[in-house]
Backbone:
């Protein structure tokens, strides 16, 4: 009973420490880095007219299938809409729950190394405390969209704990519960798939023989494994393209120096890069400094260059050393195997993009392996030098707490996130451009322009900043500068254009009097998207300036087909008919415009004049009187011709 009370006290203490380190997250905003795409603008989550069962279909047969995570977002959106507090609170509560689960897992695992209950309890507390405060966990807790990390880990750790219960009590019901939790974990995030490997590692730790009987025992777990592979589209090819990946920053458009070396085949470069990523992640667990949302691939590969070749040998040496020391310190090899097994899905993910090269979030579960073997070593040393161990653990705890507290502030909003990356990697054009977009969205125009200029200065071949600056120049009526920036965007973008680009450049050309170039761009825009409304309007205006009235009529007719209730389109087409002396059709269009907006005196005046030119003077006079009644000022000579008092 006394032991139970102490476990409860330690659990409460862990809860308070974790909440204290992370409580600032409750004041944080959403970040415009997948929070918008996956939560706020995701119809399955935010559209009340779509059945909640859509969450069970979203990304089905794709690696990013996570229906349980989507359901939690859906319920939160139903309760609070786009207010971030509840999303952050639930992430924090899940992290706290995971900390408590790690504590109880530690109580069981440490029994394989120690008999003294007090040492086991102390070790489990240290184990959970370091897990709680590790700075690499901030991304998973503070980022609303990373609900998937803390949620899959909740079921993952729960499944591991029930398996440990099964090993102790030999009741098969616990293994069935493990299988259920395994399924829930994978349905929260596919990274949960590695739990099956952790179960076998646990068998090794418990010195169970890996034989046929052990495999038969785990049939429910294997069944869940296969079902989940099917749901992720990994058993059969469903020819579906996974589009749920991160979208917050452009892919690096330049290869690093290492990637362009002709000394190595692509396979060798790929293998060496894998070992670099593994080394970085493993090293970052030990020294979690300079944490950021992204670690630019090109910058890191260029920093190491050919020196990257050492990483396969370095990792090989680490694991070989752990293997040779396995009898004396088995916890090291076990912890490193845990790290390798649980990080393997992240290693398997393509490293071609900045967003998935070295993210902290992939380490939420894997770092448990490292923390565990360090905890075991600390408790072993505790018997020999109690004060030194407590001093080191205390210092590391304080260090982690300070780093975590500071990193939570970094996640306050999108701007603070990008600023952190810029502070660490000062001249990264993609990130500077991303911050410029954030400033644009919140109305900080001067800061946005400054960032666009800095991004171009950092990398004059990156297309996105040119487009952003072109739009600012266009809206500021600096049309010549806008044309130059649009040209640079097209030059460096080379392919993958949308219609809006050429429609906007065409408008800029038109504004500086280069109408023929504008028409060429408008035609190109229409070829890219024949249903893009704005370009037809822009081209109709260009035709009007060239007095190509029939061509203008064609474009206004196209626009009316898109939006038959748009009054100005009828007026513009009526004007084009009038200019081509087709007064009959002009009158028809003006009449339709009046039907849509009968209080507009200007349209009555236009129809009046069309009647006048058609020599329908009575109708012209009636329309002029109506226009005058509605407050329209008309030329005195015209009113006199219609015998209307001025």
Residues:
């Amino acid at each position: 009973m006394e032991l139970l009370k102490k476990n409860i006290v330690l659990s409460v203490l862990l809860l308070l420490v974790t909440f204290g380190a992370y409580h600032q997250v409750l004041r944080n905003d959403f970040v415009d880095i997948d929070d918008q795409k996956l939560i706020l603008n995701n119809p399955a989550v935010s559209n009340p007219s779509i059945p909640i069962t859509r969450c069970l279909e979203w990304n089905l047969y794709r690696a990013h299938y996570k229906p349980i995570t989507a359901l939690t977002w859906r319920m939160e959106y139903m309760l609070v809409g786009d207010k971030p507090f509840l999303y952050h609170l639930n992430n924090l509560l899940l992290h706290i729950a995971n900390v408590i689960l790690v504590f109880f897992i530690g109580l069981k695992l440490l029994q394989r190394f120690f008999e003294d209950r007090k040492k086991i309890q102390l070790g489990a507390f240290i184990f959970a405390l370091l897990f709680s405060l590790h700075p690499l966990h901030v991304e998973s807790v503070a980022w609303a969209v990373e609900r998937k990390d803390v949620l899959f880990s909740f079921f993952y750790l729960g499944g591991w704990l029930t398996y440990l219960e099964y090993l102790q009590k030999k009741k098969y019901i616990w293994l069935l519960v493990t299988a259920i939790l395994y399924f829930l974990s994978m349905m929260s995030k596919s990274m949960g798939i590695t739990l099956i490997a952790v179960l076998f590692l646990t068998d090794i730790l418990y010195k169970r023989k890996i034989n046929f009987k052990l495999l038969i025992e785990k049939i429910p777990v294997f069944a869940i494994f296969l079902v989940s592979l099917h749901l992720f589209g990994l058993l059969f090819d469903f020819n579906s393209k996974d589009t749920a990946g991160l979208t917050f920053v452009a892919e690096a458009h330049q290869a690093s120096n290492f990637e362009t070396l002709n000394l190595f085949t692509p396979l060798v470069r790929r293998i060496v890069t894998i070992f670099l990523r593994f080394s970085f992640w493993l090293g970052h667990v030990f020294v979690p400094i300079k944490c950021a949302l992204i670690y630019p691939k090109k910058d890191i590969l260029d920093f190491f260059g050919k020196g990257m070749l050492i990483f396969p040998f370095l990792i090989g040496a680490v694991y070989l050393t752990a293997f040779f020391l396995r009898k004396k310190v088995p916890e090291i090899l076990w912890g490193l195997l845990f790290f390798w097994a649980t990080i393997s899905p992240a290693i398997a993910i393509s490293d071609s993009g900045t967003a998935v090269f070295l993210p902290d979030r992939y380490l939420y579960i894997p770092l448990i392996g490292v923390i565990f073997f360090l905890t075991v070593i600390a408790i072993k040393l505790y018997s020999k030098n109690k004060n030194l161990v407590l001093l080191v653990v205390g210092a590391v705890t304080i260090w982690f707490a300070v780093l975590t507290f500071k990193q939570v502030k970094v996640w306050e909003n999108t701007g603070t996130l990008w600023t952190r990356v810029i502070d660490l990697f000062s001249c990264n054009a993609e990130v500077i451009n991303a911050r410029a977009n954030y400033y644009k969205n919140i109305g900080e125009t001067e800061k946005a322009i400054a960032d666009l200029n800095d991004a171009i200065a950092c990398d004059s071949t990156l297309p996105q900043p040119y487009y952003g600056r072109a739009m600012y120049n266009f809206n500021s009526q600096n049309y010549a500068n806008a044309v130059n920036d649009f040209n640079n965007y097209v030059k460096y973008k080379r392919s993958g254009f949308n219609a809006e680009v050429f429609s906007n450049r065409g408008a800029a050309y038109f504004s500086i009097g280069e109408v023929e170039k504008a028409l060429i761009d408008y035609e190109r825009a229409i070829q890219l998207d024949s249903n893009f409304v704005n370009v037809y309007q822009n081209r109709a205006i260009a035709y009007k300036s060239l007095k190509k009235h029939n061509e203008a009529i064609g474009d206004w007719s196209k626009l009316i087909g898109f939006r038959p209730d748009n009054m100005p389109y009828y007026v513009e087409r009526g004007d084009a008919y009038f200019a081509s002396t087709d007064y009959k059709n002009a009158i028809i269009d003006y009449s339709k415009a009046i039907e849509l907006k009968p209080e507009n005196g200007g349209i009555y005046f236009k129809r009046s004049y069309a009647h006048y030119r058609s020599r329908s003077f009575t109708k012209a006079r009636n329309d002029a009187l109506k226009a005058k009644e509605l407050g329209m000022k008309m030329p005195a000579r015209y009113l006199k011709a219609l015998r209307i008092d001025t």
Summary: The CA atoms of residues 307 and 353 lie 22 Å apart. Confidence is low (pLDDT under 50) at residues 238-252.
